[in-house]
Amino acid sequence: SPIAAAAVSTAIIFTRTMGWSEPSKILILGLLLFLAALMISLIPFPSFKDFRVKRENAFAVLATVVVILVVGAAAPEIALFGFVYFYIAMGFIIGTFRWFFPSKKKEEAA
Questions:
Q1: What is the CA radius of gyration of the chain?
Q2: Per-residue model confidence (pLDDT) at position 43
Q3: Verdict on whether the full-model pTM lies above 0.90
Q4: CB 72: neighbour CB atoms within 10 A?
Q5: Which of 16, 20, 23, 53 is most buried, with most CB under 10 Å away?
Q6: Mean pLDDT of the chain
Q7: How confident is the model at residue 38 (pLDDT cuts 50, 70, 90)?
Q8: What is the 3-state secondary structure (H, E, C) of the chain?
Q9: pLDDT computed for residue 106 by the predictor
């Protein structure tokens, strides 16, 4: 998956940018195994295939995109690391939310 490759590469780039020593091979292997497990898990990750902007939210979405682009242009190594791991965290947050608060449609179908 592209996000798994981005997670590994941005982790290495991030540590070099921050001036830290490179992560150990064991840590990278652990990250790879963790990401491989996520790829076959049932945790739902956000998909932006059907991203639609409502008319009421158009300005907020535009402002958010501009802020993301500015932050990404100012420090791309740090921003990419943050975006990738934020995306991974969102999968866990959405999965946890759906676990504790299942949709009414699934309950009615059962």
A1: 17
A2: 82
A3: no
A4: 14
A5: 23
A6: 86
A7: confident
A8: CHHHHHHHHHHHHHHHHCCCCCCCHHHHHHHHHHHHHHHCCCCCCCCCCCCCCCHHHHHHHHHHHHHHHHHHHHCHHHHHHHHHHHHHHHHHHHHHHHHHCCCHHHHHHC
A9: 57
Cα separation, 58 vs 30, in Å, equals 41
- List of residues 6+ apart from 35 with CB closer than 8 A: 1, 4, 7, 8
**Cα distance between residue 30 and residue 87, in whole Å:** 19
Q: Quote the tokens at residue 100.
A: 């504790």
Dihedral sign, CA of 90, 96, 101, 102?
Answer: positive
CA distance 72 to 83: 9
Q: 92 Cβ partners below 8 Å, 6+ apart?
A: 43
- Residue count (the chain): 110
Rounded to whole angstroms, how far apart are CA atoms 73 and 67? Answer: 10
